[in-house]
Amino acid sequence: MARLTAMEIRKRTAVVFLGFMAFLMVLLLRLGYLQLVQNRWYQERALSQRMRPVPVDAKRGVIYDRNLQKLAVSVSADAVYAVPAEVEDPAATAKALAPLLDMEAAAIEERLTRKQATVWLARKLDTDTAREIRALDLPGIGLVERPQRYYPHGQLAAHVLGIAGIDNQGLEGLEFYYDEYLRGEPGRVVMERDAAG
């Protein structure tokens, strides 16, 4: 085997050095492109992964009689929602929720596999059911308080007051006639998620 001369060694070293420098330049250019040109896109993407908006319904206004006695008020009731993208095992989650929500597991699983940001699974839950769902600590499943219409005097003046539907919209009577004034403005709560979910 022939021995390499000092000149050949320098040439090979220079080629390796130039190759390494070219690689570093490509790496630095790519890094600069990502940090300077595309930084806004990556910031927005990171924010959308970390922050999740959850819709919050506005409470309806109170209906009073002439003596300022409350005839119709809004009270809070828990509602369960799902973020389908965060549900790890839709079948197991549906099976766990079915007896609590008094629904078929297949119907829940169908909602859990929708291509939507959030889906409602059930509304107007009683306190015990909400507590049991919280205790399950299922990924992608959350509870939020939503307003529910309550009539303190029961059927008194029911034919005049009318009713409000599940989406808090006036359907009959005064609830329907003054819906524009009673409805309120819906909002949203932005929930922040850490690495643990």
Write a brief caption for the model.
The protein is of the alpha+beta class. It has two domains: 6-50; 52-190, Penicillin-binding protein 2a (Domain 2), CATH 3.90.1310.10.
Observed structural traits:
197 residues; alpha+beta; Penicillin-binding protein 2a (Domain 2); 2 domains; 4-stranded antiparallel beta sheet; two-stranded antiparallel ribbon; 8 helices; 22% strand; elongated
Reconstruct the topology from this structure.
Layout: H1 6-37, H2 39-50, E1 51-56, E2 63-64, E3 70-82, H3 90-101, H4 105-112, E4 119-125, H5 127-136, E5 141-150, H6 158-161, H7 173-177, H8 179-182, E6 187-192
Antiparallel strand pairs: 1-6, 2-3, 3-4, 3-5
Helix pairs in contact: 3-4, 3-5
